[in-house]
Amino acid sequence: MESYLQQLKSLQAAESAIVLGNPTADLDSVVSALILAFYSTKSGKPAIAVINIPRSELRLRSDVTTWLKENNIDPELLCFRDDIDLHTLAAQEQLHLTLVDHNELPADDEHLEPFVDRIVDHHKTSDTLRKPADAVIELVGSCCTLVAEHSISHLDEQCARLLYGTILVDTACLDESAGRTTAKDKEIVEKLEAIMHADTSQRSEIFNKLQGFKFDLSALTVEEILSKDMKEVTSHSSRILCPSVLTSPESFFARPDVIQQLEHLLSDANAKMMVLLFIHLENGSPVRHLAIYDPEDWMKDELVSFLNRSELPLSLTPVACPASGVSLYSQAVEYSRKHVLPLLSFFLESSKTPPNSFVDPSSFHSYMRQHQLVEETVNEKLLQDTTEGSDSPPHEAESDSQVAPFEEASEVTTTKKKGNKKK
Length: 423
Description:
Layout: H1 2-7, E1 17-20, H2 27-42, E2 47-51, H3 62-70, E3 79-80, H4 86-91, E4 97-100, E5 116-121, E6 134-137, H5 143-151, H6 157-170, H7 183-196, H8 201-214, H9 222-228, E7 230-235, E8 238-245, H10 249-253, H11 258-269, E9 273-282, E10 285-293, H12 300-308, E11 317-319, E12 326-331, H13 337-349, H14 361-371, H15 378-387, E13 413-416
Helix pairs in contact: 2-5, 2-6, 3-8, 5-6, 6-7
């Protein structure tokens, strides 16, 4: 693997397949792209694994960087989205694109779609998807399961361990009650254990180690923690920022200059309010809080009333907040940001009427169906396997790239926050 990474810069992009992971650049995406490209190159078909984020953003993904280093891979040797110009390659008709861990391109990359000649993915597909002849799309718990199956006869111990840990994360350590495991995931894990000369006792050890990596925010600044998984909702010239934060409110607000950083991010985005969604583990169980920072006393009370009267039983209960000027609430653990974001959007949409007048619930359900706002973002995808058991099949836990964005015709939009050159 090291020799492959060392030669990445010398590979000619126009003569190689570009193996592109999904835009969340989570562990599954990074490892899948890396292993698939590595073994393609070893077989005589040069391929470049491209991590689908700017290089500067990798440090925000502590589980990815630490797991790579633990397996003797230097993250600095990887190729990132800002290291290679896919648009120029497409314009020159020299692009050969393989999509890994996603099967559709986001809006900014839609024009690259004609150059997709291979897909390896574990998400459900849309009815309009144009599948290339070489497409492996199977609804398993982890994309690494499909990559491992493809490469199983060639895997060395290093690559087997990379895949092994990632599959355990995505399937909640093969816990069937989490609803994210299939028979194929289990079969592949057993085959990887044979290559690693490991037994089942290592599963929980590696799984718990990777879980610890996810929640380690010690090396990140307040701005990086918030920017790591930031969304914004806008309507009628009003904007609400909504970051997901993988720590407790007590830990987060104990950091120095937190309020100043919140003010800076609001000002930078020209936003009125920030709704922070916290999730952390206590004794292995998830705990959620919702915090509202509304420095101009814009519409905090109206928003809380709106949320409490929604069809979703968020069960917002005021609790003491260590930070002045921030309102903090405990929240029902069943509801993640993929549920709260549509409510925030609908709140802004309905603010053209008196903001405290709740709209007919049937209108909200219609709005949800129209915009398909059931999304899963970077932090939620990191947490899905340990904190949110599901009765749904594993393929229904999807990344942002798999979710339809708001329609252009709507006055409401939701996007990733792009302040300070964060993607």
